Amino acid sequence: MSTATLLPPAFVVLAVALVMPFVSRRVGHALGVLSTGGVAVWSLLAPAGAHLPVTFLGFDAVLFNVDEFSRLMGIIFGLIGAAAVLYSYSSAARNVQTAYALGYVGTSLGAVFAGDWLTMVFFWELMAVTSTLLVWDYGGKAVRAGYRYAIAHGLGGSLLMGAIVWHYVEVGSFLFSATDGIAAGVPAALAALGIGVNVGFVGLHTWLPDTYPRPHFAASVFLSVYTTKTGVYGLARAFPDGNLLIAYMGTAMAVVGVGYALMQNDMRRLLAYHIQSQVGYMVAGVGIGTALATAGAFAHVYNHILYKALLFMTAGVVLSRTGEENLKYLGNLRGALPATALAFTVAALSISGFPGFNGFVSKGMITAAAHKEHLDGIFYLLLAGGVGTFMSFIKFGYYAFFRDADRDWSLDRAGTGQSVAMLGVAGLCVAFGLYPDALFAILPGSTADAHPFTLSHLGEGFALAVLGVVGFVVVKKPLSKVGDVPDVDTVLNPAVFYGTRGLVRGATGLFAAVDRVVSAAAYDVAGTIANPYPALRRVAGGLGRSEADSITVGSLRATIATSIALVVLILGGVLVGLLA
């Protein structure tokens, strides 16, 4: 394919986002489905190596590049984008909201198809802007959550930008092809922290459960997909050979995220914590760095996008039909919302890694890679995270759909577009679970040791499921008494707020004090120049008559000379200004 004929797919989606507010809902959302679906098809068919070199801000850059990593990201980003736009249309989302969402999709595509660090960070920052606008669009509590979200991603993006500038100083190029990953040392540390905000490193993760439950439920479907998975892509670009510290951080994310998720009653907050947990598996795979681990990490990116978007879709239907988001006040919805209950069941089994569903395939690849490298701590902790995931979604399903509730719901069922989107994605979760070779064909890395249907792997999957059921039965009663569980933002948010306020007040107070001292001194000097006699009399009070007379004459001469010099300077400045 000639580079001259390439049109980056990000630009197509962004163009639709720009025109969408000016057309009807039907036309706008139809264009959204066609553009995002077209990206998925184009990404699948585009030849490897297709690229578009440009000069960006005076530097050599590659605006668009197709390789095994960007191809996979383009396929799944486009595919789920089409399903999410269809779901939004059936969920009565306004054109403006979906336009912001498509802007978010387009900037994410720009980041993952970039062929250099400069282009990637440009779209990375735009992705933070468009996703913030998507959150803010809903108003209410989403506005404050959006501010915190913007601050977090502004800091993360600044750290990543610092890493990229430092990398350029050391390497002399922004191109991915110029070096194997980000430069070691300070650039690598800054990149890990900056990208760590996007993927939800432990301690940098609280924007996830704080933000994702706040906006319109259809917006949450988009939000659950793009930021964190673009972060995983960026991490793989920065550390293509892995890094054990990153692997252990991913393992911590998997365990901490599932622990917090298990204690949540708010549906979308539970799902947000599980984003951190599931992304932890991907981060662990990138950190392990072997060919199998890398393939497993990106298989899990692909599979997670499918089942996590599906979970947010089902939660959105429940919320929109019942008006309730707390699991404690739900129950017995399987009869009132049968398609939603079916889609949820498929998604829950997929995220839990039950045999026959797509999560089983990709989770097994990552745990197998850890086991093969004798990383026993990572291996067993990831298995423990799997048990916690089963427990979390048994809890979700039990309280929302299968528990006998006092009330008999009489509700409108999911809309046609919602059902088509949910059942279509659910079908893909099953298809890739039963026929993983379809996914293996587009994965980066090696899948030689990845096939899931071995006795040991099947036994592992069924054992985790049994442990999850037993675990939920044991903790069900204690969990029912758990209220709001504090996270680090309970301390972090007030500390940042009051710390920033103290810093601002201290800086402005110091400035005011210096200003007062300088102003007082200036007024004294000006007053002395204008009328030197009071000062001279004060001085003369401590001197003899002859000394005072000599000082008076000298001061007068100095005053006259200073005045003449000031007049000359002022007139000279005016003359220069007129001549210019």
TrEMBL record:
Keyword Oxidoreductase recorded: yes
GO cellular component, one term: plasma membrane
Keyword set includes Transmembrane helix: yes
Key words, A-Z: Cell membrane, Membrane, Oxidoreductase, Transmembrane, Transmembrane helix
Cellular compartments annotated: Cell membrane
Annotated membrane topology: Multi-pass membrane protein
Any one GO molecular-function label of the UniProt entry: oxidoreductase activity
InterPro entries reported for this sequence: ComplexI-like_HydComp, ND/Mrp_TM
All residue ranges annotated as the NADH:quinone oxidoreductase/Mrp antiporter transmembrane domain in the record: 114-377
Predominant subcellular localization, coarse grouping: membrane
Pfam families: Proton_antipo_M
Top-level taxon: Archaea
Listed transmembrane segments: 6-23, 30-49, 69-87, 99-115, 150-169, 181-204, 216-236, 242-263, 279-299, 335-357, 377-399, 420-443, 455-475, 560-579
NCBIfam families in the record: PRK12668.1
Name used for this protein in its record: Na(+)/H(+) antiporter subunit D
Species: Haloferax marisrubri
